[in-house]
Amino acid sequence: TWHPLSTTGAKLPPDQDGTILLIGCTRDVNDRKMMEESLRATEELFRIVSHAVDDIISVATTDRQSLYVSPSFFRVTGYSESEVLQTDFATRVHPEDVALVEETRQRNLRGEQTSIEWRLRHKNGHVIWLETRANPVRNSLGIVDRIVYCSRDISDRKHTEDAIRQYAAEIERSRNEIASQADALRLANEMAQQAS
Hints:
The chain is α+β, with helices and mostly antiparallel strands. 45% of the residues lie in helices and 29% in strands.
């Protein structure tokens, strides 16, 4: 069986008769090599998964410093990585949702898991609806030091919900109009019967 080894050595000063001495140490690094290979495989799997999903995964410190942003964020929002790093996150939040996002962040800092629907401004200016679940991560002292976010673009669902609300309102208006016309016909019928 072959095992990877790590060898270090040094040449010592020659002794009195001129003999050159070497000293060395050899260690079996098989366990370390196996761990490195396992780590490489895990990183490769993570890279494959993070590039394949449409959900946005990000990790930030409690002071909003990004530790990780999945590639899907850039696909969904249109922003480049440098644009995201150069601008304040709050400038991309829809003005009507800034308070909700900040209140939710404060809950996360207290250790609460949250789920909200909010709007983000796409680089091209249109609004994207996102559903975001946030999970605080505590360090070994029990203090929240990171927050993991998982967001999904729900714009299509929101547009469908708006269309359904509009249709429901239209149906209600039509119902009211029909009821009003039925009342008018009933009144006209009653008046016609009384006249005859």
